[in-house]
Amino acid sequence: MQGFRYLDDTAILRLSVEKCIGCGNCLLVCPHRIFQVQDGKAEIVDRNACMECGACAKNCPTAAIYVNPDDGCGCAAYIINSWITKIRGKAASGCSC
Amino acid sequence: MTATLTLRDDLGSIGARTGFTRNNYKITPGLYCLGDAGKNSPVLVTANYKLSFDALRKELMGQNLWILVVDTRGINVWCAAGKGTFSAEEIAYQVQRAQLDQIVSHRELLLPQLSANGVAAHELKKLCGFRGRFGPILAADIPEFLRTGETSETMRTVTFSLRERAVLVPLEVCMTLKHLFVAAVVFFVLSGISPDFFSLGLALNRGTVLLLATLMAIFAGAAATPLLLPWLPFRQFWLKGAVVGAIAALLLFAGLPLTSSIEKIAIFLWVSGSSAFLAMNFTGSTPFTSLSGVAKEMRPGLAFQISSTVLAILFWVAGPFM
Ligand code: SF4
Ligand code: SF4
Q1: Which in B7, B30, B304, B316 has the greatest CB count within 10 A?
Q2: With an 8 Å Cβ cutoff, are A51 and B288 in contact?
Q3: Architecture of domain B7-156
Q4: Residue A51 maps to which CATH number?
């Protein structure tokens, strides 16, 4: 993904090294090259390229990874809708994608 | 089922891509047999979105295998996984419905990598007895994956090439055009307000100018910005869109019969603001923008878009009074 960097120091991605068993699932499912497994432990090598898709957290057998849990496809329409929801207290209609 | 694509399939894809008929492009969920699949043939899992299914079918011509189509309500793998419809539970349900354990002798399902945010592969085994394994991102890499049994790092890394961006443009543009009719009515009304209350001549002339400017803004924000994405300055999408919109507005001045500078300012603000908004909306279609990032850029982005639109309306309506 050269040429495609989004905002730095924004994505919410946490890894608990104590819980990690080094299975390598996160490395396999991540569509960007965020993780490396070394000496039986995963480490985050390129945090700023994370798009918060949640694939790593979903496929970690020991729940060692935490990703921004707000779902939705990351489009502006979705976020506007969820803001309106917060203001009006009604269920979000989501976006059209 | 045949692996040959017909012209009708291609026409259908055009319909699906432009967004007009997108909701009608579903494949019936269930198990499909490709070629001469047997007890030991691999089983690939995909969404019941016609474009995903066709891509798979096209790349797998001549192979013998099973395709298990899960019900994602006609949504593609990536969005369906994000929305929770492409899940371990849904896959297990389709496995049981198709009685897959009696059709194949192995116990392995090959999943599209981009479904990993919705499917926990380690849960599949508990739910249906089949082990889940993630394959490559692109259907085009599946034949090699089947041959070697492994995915390379490149196969597992998402790309966003000019071609991949170009495919998204028709949908982006068409979604916007849907609202254009209502907008056109508003444009004509706003454009006709004059010192002697309302002028039909002004409404038609200035309304047309505004409509042309809006088409230019749509081109700038929903087509040019996505296509030029990696080469535009700034990381925030609304800024990229505003830059392209500003250039588009300057180009417009060469062709539009605008004389008063207040109208020019109005058009400039309107085109750059709308382009910024459309560009910001494109964040939802890229495979590298995080939700936290989008939320962060939306605060300054929306502030700019709303204020430029309000000012644009004020200046535009003030035009005939100057
Ligand atoms: S959330 Fe997605 S992009 Fe971020 S590290 Fe996990 S798998 Fe990779
Ligand atoms: S998936 Fe979880 S346990 Fe496995 S390597 Fe990654 S962080 Fe460690």
Answers
A1: B316
A2: yes
A3: 3-Layer(aba) Sandwich (3.40)
A4: 3.30.70.20
A21 inside domain: yes
Q: How buried is residue B117: exposed, middle or buried, by Cβ count under 10 Å (0-12/13-18/19+)?
A: buried
ipTM of the prediction: 0.85
CA distance A10 to A23: 27
In a domain, A54, yes or no: yes
Complete DSSP assignment for B260-298:
-HHHHHHHHHHHHHHHHHHHHHGGGG-SS--HHHHHHHH
B242-266 confidence digits (pLDDT tens): 999 999 999 999 888 777 899 999 9
Listed residue (B102, B26, B112, B24) closest to B67, CA to CA: B112
DSSP category for residue B221: I
Taking an 8 Å cut-off on Cβ atoms, the answer to whether A74 and B289 are in contact is yes
What is the average pLDDT score of chain B? 89
Tell me what pLDDT residue B81 has: 86
- Is the pLDDT at A7 greater than 80? The verdict is yes
Single-letter residue type at B233? P
Domain encompassing residue A36: 13-68
Domain count, chain A: 1
Q: Find the mean pLDDT for residues B180-196.
A: 92
Q: What burial letters (b/e) apply to B34-49, b meaning 16+ CB within 10 Å?
A: bbebeeebbbbbbbbb
Whether A93 is in a domain gets the answer no
Has this prediction a pTM greater than 0.90? no
> Which one-letter amino acid corresponds to residue A50?
C
Mean pLDDT calculated for residue range A53-70 = 93
Going from N- to C-terminal start, the domains of chain B cover 7-156, 162-321
Q: Is B91 on the interface with A (CB under 8 A)?
A: no
Q: Which residue of A has its CA nearest to B75?
A: A97
Query: Angle CA(B143)–CA(B144)–CA(B148) in degrees, nearest 5?
Result: 125
The CA distance from B66 to B210, in Å, is 54
Partners of A94 on chain B (C-beta within 8 Å) are: 83
